Amino acid sequence: MRVPITQSEEWRKLQDNLGETNFFKTGNGYQFLAILKKTPVGNYLYCPYGPAAKDQKSFQEAIEALQSLGREQSAIFIRVEPFRASEAEYLPHTAIKSKDLNPKETWLLDLTGTDDDLRSKLPSRLLRYYKSASKKGITIETSHDPADIHYLLDLQKALAKEKGISTFSEHYLQTELKQPFATLYLIKYDKEVVAAGLVFDDKTTRYNLQGAQSDEGRKLHATGILTIQLILDAKSAGKQIFDFWGIAPEGSPSAHPWAGFTNFKKTFAGYQYDHAGTYDLILKPAKYKLYKTTRRLHRLLRK
Q1: What is the pLDDT of residues 23-52, one digit of tens each?
Q2: CA quadruple 203, 62, 74, 44: dihedral positive or negative?
Q3: CATH fold group of domain 105-274
Q4: N or C: which end of the chain has fewer CB within 10 A?
């Protein structure tokens, strides 16, 4: 049974550090981490990329355990994101498809095999940039110091302003970097940080969750150089999978906000992996309807 990092004991500890009420349970062939989310009309449970289960029977037992927990916590609904696309078939018929929170599709790179096998999967153009980086004065550093998270956040804020997207808070990112599974990578040129990336590692997988680069970094192909380093280090550490963490859905228009980095990720000879997406298991229909109405009004007011 492959357990995503967001359903692990380590992720539970991160939620504890963030001050989030959460529930971690293991059963016969399954485990889940459910985070209590508060809203003005009531609370719900959120199970990011979970529950994790070895087969259909275990998955359905996990769903039953989640529903029981939800009733104990007087939750309006339970938001789940089955890790495998096929598991959507095993959800109760009352499950309602919701807007996807975590990416439904992602791009994975197989790190098993020889070093030559891996290098054959890497874009030759990016390998050239990587090999010549030090000659151009580009350096790559790693950090576990939460104070260094501002390098990533500053780059992300500039990108967010350009793309009209939101970023995580400094406290959130610092708390992530404090976890033993997190590493911050910094690409420097002329003593300036031109790209940064935050990765998470579990026993089998490196997750490439956060990243950004400056205009100068873009000219230097810093993100490409960084990604090559992330992959080679993951291979050296004995990881089996490199998860690029999210791509645009198949058939998306070129104007899709993820189109650019999806094209970049697909230059690596990996493969697409589909999750089931986000679903709501409703426990209190009347309150759920009120929750949805309140959310729609809130979005309209923000516009």
Answers
A1: 999 999 999 999 999 999 999 999 999 999
A2: positive
A3: Aminopeptidase (3.40.630)
A4: C
Q: Report pLDDT digits (tens) over 142-153.
A: 999 999 999 999
Q: Are 42 and 71 in contact (CB under 8 A)?
A: no
Whole-model pTM: value is 0.94
Same fold flag, 5-102+276-302 and 105-274: yes
Query: What is the C-alpha to C-alpha distance for residues 227 and 30, in angstroms, rounded to an integer?
Result: 33
Maximum CA pair distance of the chain?
64
The count of C-alpha atoms lying within 13 angstroms of the C-alpha of 266, restricted to the half-sphere facing its C-beta, is 15
Structure tokens belonging to residue 222: 């810093």
Q: Where are the domains of the chain?
A: 5-102+276-302, 105-274
**What is the CATH code of the structural domain delimited by 5-102+276-302?**
3.40.630.30
For the record, the structure tokens of 128 come out as 């050239």
